[in-house]
């Protein structure tokens, strides 16, 4: 079966690393198996959903390279949900309820006091058609519950233990006892639909074959499989990945604002670094920098995803970002270097890439090579002597060793006493790329001026 998967965020906030882990696993699975990827905005929450967040979701996914084959949004499909709801109402699978939240809360408390599970008692199913009509005529607006298939013939309305099972793509054999759950509300009193319902109808209509999402949806899956069957559809395959925790083992939920994809973009991180970390964290594979999404897709194997929480550490992401930059060939960054105002010099990139934490650091080193910096003169006698034996142009990578040998012979300095003052004078920095590679890029005039303590 050619997979057709979906990523269905709600446009009520910015995408964060937890969202992207789900998106990446779906997109890479489709990529690996020649399938398709649907971006669906679950925007039935009209109060919190905004066009700004919807646009940001598309922008973040595009930045990561997680492009979609098809796009849909639930706000455009209300007529379809009305049609599907009418069919379920006609079959008796959806039934009207009139209890207020306060009334339901009192019932739950009574059930708990009697050591009974606090699930809905299906009192609304005892209402006659006349009673229902009278309530509606009196202005009461019903909410609609889905009757879970957890009773057997002759057992009335009392839920019975009813296991609904599936072989999870990640977690193996799973089951949910529908007898321990309340009939879920699928339509609110104001007529708006809940995710549990609209998601199923969309998955049917868009022919979704595989649903990969967080383990916090396992119970939802049991309920939704029952809704699929009530709608006359075969449920897709399901996979539930573990959730992420921080480096300290605590839940990320309160820190997700700081872990938004926009925050990573603002920090100058590479999209492939973010994607590699999102896809490989919590798996038996090493988290390593890969340069293409196809390479990452080839590594995807649901059997390698641990059921234990994935441990996300932004510091590790930044180290991964550095490693990725260190492996990038000049051809992969030539256009970006030119866009940053850096002359397209392969020698420069090869000289500095091993010292970059973010791509933006290349501009810092370009300024060291070709800009105007304040030299730091630590040992003026040494720098004066070094200027006096500075070789004539043209220079090559051998120039550094030839020059420092001449400075050593003239001054007797060696080791740190020789190299540290020269680095400070030429770069203004304590450490950095090898000077044998930077020196030819700086040029003789700039080097001489800096040895004399002049800005250059």
UniProtKB/TrEMBL annotation:
Highest taxon listed in the record's lineage: Bacteria
One Gene Ontology MF term: glutamate-tRNA ligase activity
GO CC terms, sorted: cytoplasm
Catalyzed reactions: tRNA(Glu) + L-glutamate + ATP = L-glutamyl-tRNA(Glu) + AMP + diphosphate
Swiss-Prot/TrEMBL keywords: Aminoacyl-tRNA synthetase, ATP-binding, Cytoplasm, Ligase, Nucleotide-binding, Protein biosynthesis
Residue ranges constituting the Glutamyl/glutaminyl-tRNA synthetase class Ib catalytic domain according to the UniProt record: 4-317
Ranges spanned by the short sequence motif 'HIGH' region, renumbered to the chain: 9-19
GO BP annotations, alphabetical order: glutamyl-tRNA aminoacylation
Domain Aminoacyl-tRNA synthetase class I anticodon-binding span(s) in chain numbering: 390-452
'KMSKS' region (motif): residue ranges: 251-255
Enzyme nomenclature, EC number: 6.1.1.17
One Pfam entry name: Anticodon_2
Binding residues annotated for ATP, in chain numbering: 254
Record localization: Cytoplasm
Similarity comment: family membership: Belongs to the class-I aminoacyl-tRNA synthetase family. Glutamate--tRNA ligase type 1 subfamily.
Self-association and partners: Monomer.
Record's function text: Catalyzes the attachment of glutamate to tRNA(Glu) in a two-step reaction: glutamate is first activated by ATP to form Glu-AMP and then transferred to the acceptor end of tRNA(Glu).
Protein name: Glutamate--tRNA ligase
The species this protein was found in: Hyphomicrobium facile
Gene of this entry: gltX
């Amino acid at each position: 079966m050619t997979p057709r998967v979906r990523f269905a965020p709600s446009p009520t906030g910015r995408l964060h690393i937890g969202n992207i882990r789900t998106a990446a696993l779906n997109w890479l699975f489709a990529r690996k198996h020649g399938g398709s990827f649907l971006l669906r905005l679950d925007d039935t929450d009209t109060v919190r959903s905004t066009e700004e967040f919807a646009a940001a979701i598309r922008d973040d996914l595009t930045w990561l390279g997680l492009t979609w084959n098809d796009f849909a949004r639930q706000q455009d499909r209300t007529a379809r949900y009305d049609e599907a709801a009418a069919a379920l109402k006609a079959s008796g699978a959806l039934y009207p309820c009139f209890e207020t939240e306060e009334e339901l809360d009192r019932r739950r408390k009574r059930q708990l006091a009697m050591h009974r599970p606090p699930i809905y008692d299906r009192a609304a199913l005892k209402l006659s058609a006349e009673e229902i009509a009278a309530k509606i005529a009196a202005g009461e607006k019903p909410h609609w519950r889905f009757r879970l298939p957890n009773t057997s013939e002759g057992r009335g309305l009392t839920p019975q233990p009813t296991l609904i099972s599936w072989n999870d793509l990640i977690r193996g054999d799973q089951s949910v006892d529908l007898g321990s759950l309340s009939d879920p509300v699928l339509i609110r009193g104001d007529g708006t639909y809940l995710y549990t319902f609209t998601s199923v109808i969309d998955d049917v209509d868009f022919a979704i074959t595989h649903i990969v999402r967080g383990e916090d949806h396992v119970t939802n899956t049991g309920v939704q499989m029952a809704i699929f069957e009530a709608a006359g559809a075969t449920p897709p395959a399901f996979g539930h990945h573990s959730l992420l925790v921080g480096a300290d083992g605590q839940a990320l939920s309160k820190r997700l604002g700081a872990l938004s994809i926009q925050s990573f973009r603002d920090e100058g991180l590479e999209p492939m670094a973010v994607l590699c970390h999102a896809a490989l964290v919590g798996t038996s594979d090493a988290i390593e920098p890969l340069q293409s999404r196809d390479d990452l897709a080839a590594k995807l194997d649901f059997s390698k995803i641990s059921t234990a929480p994935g441990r996300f550490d932004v510091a590790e992401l930044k180290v991964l970002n550095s490693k990725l930059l260190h492996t990038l060939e000049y051809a992969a960054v030539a256009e970006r270097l030119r866009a940053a105002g850096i002359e397209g010099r392969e020698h420069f990139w090869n000289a500095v890439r091993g010292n970059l934490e973010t791509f933006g650091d290349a501009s810092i080193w370009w300024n060291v090579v070709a800009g105007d910096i304040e030299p730091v003169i630590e040992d003026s006698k040494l720098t004066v002597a070094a200027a006096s034996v500075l070789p004539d142009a043209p220079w090559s990578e051998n120039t550094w060793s030839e020059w420092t040998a001449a400075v050593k012979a003239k001054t007797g300095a060696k080791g740190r006493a020789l190299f540290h003052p020269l680095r400070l004078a030429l770069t203004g920095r304590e450490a950095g790329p090898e000077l044998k590679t930077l020196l030819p890029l700086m040029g003789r005039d700039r080097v001489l001026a800096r040895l004399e303590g002049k800005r250059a």
